[in-house]
Amino acid sequence: MKEIIAIIRPNKMAATKEVLTVLGFPAMTAHRVMGRGKQKAIIDEVSFEIQKEELHKKEGSMRYIPKRLMMLIVPDEDASLVVEAIMRVNQTGQIGDGKIFVCPVDEAIRVRTKEKGEEAIT
Description:
It is built from 3 helices and 4 strands. It is an alpha+beta fold. The longest helix has 12 residues, at 79-90. It is elongated. The relative contact order is 0.30.
């Protein structure tokens, strides 16, 4: 099994969930997070009004910007499909498109039924 962790733009969350659901991966955990990459922030990404006009022209003027972090566990053979789907929905070619991390998962256990392994995630 693999854990796929994706950090994406907030405005891409609904489309990403929709595509993953259509592909058969509706189960996920999602969080609202704040962060930044090497560019230090993108002013156009914020969802509130900026009063000072000169700040609209600056990159890197903010410490953190809103993002969405989503995590899902998938069977090994489906990891590349899920990663490709997330990339297709979220890739704009602009700074701030996000990151995807793929990590191994040693075990999964469904608390209610005590199912283990892939049975616990399907």
